[in-house]
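TICKET #2291
ISSUE: user wants both folds in one file
ATTACHMENT 1:
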Amino acid sequence: MEKRFVYMDHAATTYTKPEVLEAMMPYFTEQFGNASSIYTFGRRSKAAIEEAREKVAKALNALPDEIYFTGGGSEADNWAIKGVAFANRDKGNHIITTKIEHHAVLHTCEYLEKQGFEVTYLDVDEYGMINLEDLKKAITDKTILITIMFANNEIGTIQPIAEIGKIARERGIYFHTDAVQAVGNVNIDVKEMNIDLLSLAAHKFYGPKGVGALYIRKGVKIDNLIHGGGQERKRRAGTENLPGIVGLGKAIELATSNIEEHNRKIKSMRDRLLNGIMEKIPYTKLNGHPEKRLPGNINVSFQFIEGESLLLLLDHYGICASTGSACSSGSLDPSHVLMAIGLPHEIAHGSLRLSLGDLNKEEDVDYVLEVLPQIVQRLRDMSPLYESFIKEGGK
C-alpha cells in the first residue's frame, strides 16, 4: 500500500487559500500603514478594513457597523458573553447555555459563576440536540443571555437556531451563537434567525489564523472586553491585524459565494466515507444527528478501541484526524460532548472525528477506507475485552 497524506481535520483548522494569501500580502510589506493614522497611507489601510467589514456583513446579512474584528473565535465568545453579562447585570444575572458548548463558552460561563452569575447548562438528546421546551422552562425573569452554538465542533449537530432566536427575541433576552464551525458551511442570516451576537473565526473557512469577528446587533447593550485605544469604533482596543482582517474578508467572500456547490461535493464524499466505515467496521456507532449535521463532519465511536492509539496509527499512515475538539486533544478525559449525549466512558474514549474539506478528493476516501478497518482490527486484536466479547458470541 502506497502511503498518502490525507488531511481530514478541517474542523480543527483549514489551510489558507492562495487567493486569500494573495489578498493579504501587500498589507505586510507595501500597504502597512496604521489604520488609525490620518495621513493617506494610513487611510488606505482603514479603507481595506472597511471593505473587509462589508464582506463579513454581506455574508451574514448584517450591517457593516455591526461587525467587530477580534483575535479569533475564542475572543469573540468571551466578549459576547462577558460583555453582555456585565453590561446587563442590573436586569438580571442568569445565563442559559448547553453542556456541549466549546470550552471558550463553557469556561467563560464558569468564570462568570464565580462573579455571582447563575448559569443553566441545558441537557441534549442522544443526537446532541437541545429540547426547545427545556429552553423555555429554563428562562426566568433574571435571564439576560442565551448562548447556544450553531453547530457542534465535535459531532457536527446543527441546532434549531432560528427557533432559539425567536424564543429569546419574544422574551427580550439576548441570543448569542458560537458559529465558528458553521460559517462557510451553513447559510446564515442573522436577521431571519433573530441572532443578536455571533462569533466566527477565519481559520475555519480557509482564512488566516488569529483573526475573527463578532457580530453585535445594533442596540445590544455590551461592555468592552479589551480596553485601550479607540479602534473598532471604540469597542475593541488594539492596533488592527490589517493583513488578517483583509484575509478574513476575502475568505468569507469565497466561502459564502459557492456554499451550495461546496456542500454538495463535501457531503457526497462524507456520505461515501461514512457508509464505508459502517459497512467495513462492525460495532461502530455514529455520533451526532444523522441528518442535521455539518456537511463534512463524521464522528464515530469504535467499541474496544482507545482513541489516542487510533490517532497515532492513522498518523503513521499519513492520515490527520481527531478524537474530538482540537483545543482539548491533549486531555485524557473523555469528551464532554460525547458524555453529554450519553456515551459511556469506554465508548467515548474510542471516538474518531473525520472532518472533510477542500483538500479532500475521492482517492482520500478510498485510502481511509482501506487503512482504517485494518487499524481498528489491529487494535481490537490487542484488547482482552474484545477477545472475551467475541468468545461470548459478540453479545
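ATTACHMENT 2:
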Amino acid sequence: MTAFRPKYITFDCYGTLTRFRMSDMAREMFADRIPAEAMDQFCKDFNGYRFDEVLGAWKPYSEVLYSAVERTCKRWGISFTDAEANAYYEAVPSWGPHPDVTAGLAKIADKIPLVIYSNAADEQIMSNVDKLGVPFHRVFTAEQGQAYKPRLQAFEYMLDNLGCGPEDVLHVSSSFRYDLIPADYMNIKNKVFVNRGHEPSTPFYRNTEIKDIGGLAAVVGLE
C-alpha cells in the first residue's frame, strides 16, 4: 500500500495495542488441572470460545468471559470457581501496552486523530487507554455500540459516530478474525496488520503488514 493519509486511524485495542494476557492467566490458573503438554490446546480452545461468545447479540463483557471459561472447562472436564472465571474480567484494566506502542503512536498522534473500537466494557477501557501514553480522539466500546467485533454493526457504529465513510479511515489490528476481515466486508480498503504472532498473515484481504506499531508512521507518510 502506498502512503495514505486518512482522516482517522482506527485501532483494535486488546492484542494490538494492549498486551492481552488471557492465555497467560489461563496457563497459570489451570496449571494444576491441565497437563503441561496439553496447555497450548486448552488456551486455543479458550480463545475459540471467547470468539464464539461475541458473535451473537451484545451482552456484558463479564458474561462473555465467564461463559468462555465455563465452556472451555466443560469441554476439558475440569472444575472452575466463580472467582476464577471472574478474575479475567477484573484483570483486564490492569494490562498495559506492548513495548513498541507508546513510541510508535507518538510519531502520529499529533498529526492524525486516533480512534479505538474495543470489545470492552466502558468501565474497563479507559484504564487501558490511559496506559498507552498518547491522546485518542475517540474511544468506542462494544458496550456503547451494542455489538462486538467481528460483527459489522460494530464498524457501522464507529463510522457513523465519526461521521465518515470507509474510505476515510485506516484500520489497524493484529487480528484478521476480529477486525481485518470484517473491515474488508465494510469496504475499508486501507488496513494494517500488526503481526504479533497470534494469527497468520492473510494478504488476500488487502492489507499492509508491519511487525509493530513503530512501522505505522511510514504507512501514513510520516517517516
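RESOLUTION: both attachments delivered.
EXTRA DETAIL ON ATTACHMENT 2: The chain has two domains: 6-17+95-218, 20-91.
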